[in-house]
Specification:
213 residues, alpha/beta, 5-stranded parallel sheet, 5 strands, 12% strand, Adenylate kinase, nucleotide biosynthesis, ATP-binding
Length: 213
């Protein structure tokens, strides 16, 4: 069983269609990490019929947003239920700075921390072209260019404040998300290699570039 110090806890940032899910699955398979998806956890909680699940069900049935407090409680529950995990990948959380602060606090109370925040950096125009081509081929109503543009805009708005938050902690690493699947995976593995070696993963001057200084 790995100790707390040996666990590897990651956040993957990437917009829709960037391949974040593919990379997360590979990390789960190759490193024994547990992927904690906010949506999956909420659905599982409701299906479990637990007291917390009943609270979630009532909130969702009303059409209300589940509070950060409940999402953190679900995350803590999954961490405690997977003591043998080699670490965790946080998917869909955090989305705001208060959520990031709450996650840090929850991990700190367990002698854990986020080791690296890996951002799949992509070209929005190229992603849009990819979606247009896929829509022309498959015609999926939930994957049309108009709705994708809204989702992409929301993602960029939500994650923008989180970049300086994690950059200030020197935990932000960027990989070229426009590379091939194997190419992105190789870049991610290089980040993990540096994390395990205790080497910096954030390029020098990144924080200054983030603010145009």
């Amino acid at each position: 069983m790995p100790t707390h110090d040996e666990k590897l806890n990651l956040i993957l940032f990437g917009p829709p269609a960037a391949g974040k899910g593919t990379q997360a699955k590979k990390l789960v398979a190759d490193h024994g990490l547990v992927q904690l998806s906010t949506g999956d956890m909420l659905r599982a909680a409701v299906a479990s019929g637990s007291d917390l699940g009943e609270r979630v069900k009532l909130i969702m049935d009303r059409g209300d947003l589940v509070s950060d407090e409940i999402v953190i409680a679900l995350i803590e529950e999954q961490i405690d239920n997977n003591p043998d995990a080699a670490g965790f990948i946080f998917d869909g959380f955090p989305r705001t700075v208060p959520q990031a602060e709450a996650l840090d606090a929850a991990l700190t109370s367990r002698d854990m921390a986020i080791d690296s925040v890996i951002r799949l950096k992509v070209d929005d125009d190229a992603l849009m072209d990819r979606i247009k081509a896929r829509f022309a081929e498959q015609g999926r109503k939930d994957d049309n260019p108009e709705s994708f543009a809204i989702r992409l805009g929301n993602y960029n708005k939500q994650t923008a404040p989180l970049l300086p938050f994690y950059a200030a902690q020197s935990k932000l690493a960027e990989v070229n998300g426009m590379d091939t699947i194997d190419g992105v995976s190789a870049q991610v593995e290089e980040v993990l290699k540096r994390v395990r070696a205790g080497e910096p993963t954030q390029k020098k001057g990144f924080f200054a570039r983030l603010f145009g200084r």
